[in-house]
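Hi V.,

You were right to ask for the full record rather than a summary. Here it is.
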Amino acid sequence: MEMQDQSKINLGIVVSEFNYDITSLMLQRALSHAEFLGVTVKVVVKVPGSYDMAVIVKELLKRDEIDGVVTLGAVIKGETKHDEIVATQTARKLMDLSVEYGKPVTLGIIGHGVTHEQAVERIEEYSMRAVESAVKLIKRLKKLREIDLTKETNVSIE
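Predicted structure:
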């Protein structure tokens, strides 16, 4: 994604402390990429685990000064299916909140079903993609909300 003036875009980041050897690096990459893109990260909130994100994300989405939320986490496969439950339920609730508030909540959560080594390999990709997706969605939602579709046709928003 090319660097543009995105100074009017304000993000919140919610990051899991579980697997913090991975998520701390994800946070560093996300903050660097947001700076590169010229967007403002208004707040970073750490939560115990990915499953705990929804309540904080909801509070951020209520705030007028937050345009979107980036979530960062790593759900590593264990001996049970716990990772599947955590990842699936977290993703579902985050999507529900995004739709409810009409603001992007991007999924920078690695997993389920990944090993620690696989998660490490995905740190940069997931972090940067989550920030880029938030920025793109915020810009496109803004354009969509400004268009008077009673007067315009064949509109393409990119």
